Prior knowledge:
With 67 residues, this protein is α+β, with helices and mostly antiparallel strands. It contains 2 helices and 4 strands, in the order E-H-E-E-H-E. The strands form 2 sheets. It has a two-stranded antiparallel sheet with strand order 1-4. Strands 2-3 form a two-stranded antiparallel ribbon. It is globular and about 30 Å long. The mean pLDDT is 94.
Amino acid sequence: MTRIRIDLDRCTKSGQCYYLVPGLVRRGEDNDPVPVAGPLDKEQLAEAESLVDSCPTGAIALVGEPR
Ligand code: SF4
């Protein structure tokens, strides 16, 4: 099962992820991005892969086994 992990030490809170893909990342306290908690389904996984590529600081990663 694959999940999204966001490294807040690298994140600059640009907001790009939660504005572009609000279904996978929401804006949390202090504008921190908060990824969905559960494992990703097939459709979410495709979106998450582009999310990883689009983060300007490389703060977003996918962790765990692919489905
Ligand atoms: S796109 Fe990257 S740098 Fe911007 S808020 Fe999301 S995780 Fe942080």
